[in-house]
Specification:
mainly alpha
Length: 170
């Protein structure tokens, strides 16, 4: 059988069953397209997650208050209920070899109301001036909270883009 005979046989088989041939081609196109889409979505998610982890820093350690008892697991041991960390613990942690910086923080959800009357429900994080360096953050505008503002109990706040938009619009 020559190449010419194979091409003629293929053409006559495809022409005789046009609907079956069309559906087969459609199935192949959809299958290949969906595989390409899934691989692309997976790679995009991988890059985004990797970027998020890298922005935290490879040398970030988070210490939470509470005691985990061996054999009881985290849920049954009441993790987070105990308030065992205090401000004096920052100095103790800084004395440990290899610790470059400490940024204590506390987070809670609150309903925030602006003087304009707009409000939003968001997470409020209380932190010190080292927070921006420890978390590897950059500000789009303005300046971060300062040590002098904290010592003077100044009213300083850094707003995220969404909260700023919700409270003050443009």
């Amino acid at each position: 059988m020559t190449l010419k005979d194979i091409i003629q046989e293929t053409y006559s088989a495809l022409s005789a069953n046009k609907i079956r041939s069309g559906l087969t081609i459609l199935g192949i196109v959809i299958g290949i397209g969906s595989v390409i889409a899934m691989v692309s979505i997976g790679e995009g998610a991988k890059v985004q997650i990797q970027g998020s982890i890298e922005s935290l820093g490879s040398n970030l350690l988070t210490i939470l208050p509470g005691v985990i008892q061996p054999g009881r697991g985290i849920v049954s041991s009441g993790r987070g209920a105990a308030q065992t960390l205090e401000n004096k613990d920052v100095d103790i942690i800084l004395e440990i070899d290899g610790v470059a910086m400490v940024a204590p923080e506390v987070s809670r959800r609150f309903q925030i109301v602006a003087p304009t009357g707009n409000n939003t429900n968001t997470t409020v994080t209380g932190a010190d001036a080292n927070f921006i360096f420890v978390r590897n953050l950059t500000l789009a505008e303005g300046s971060f909270i300062t040590d002098s503002g904290i010592r003077g109990l100044g009213r300083e706040a850094v707003l995220g883009a969404t909260v700023a938009q919700d409270l003050f619009g443009e």
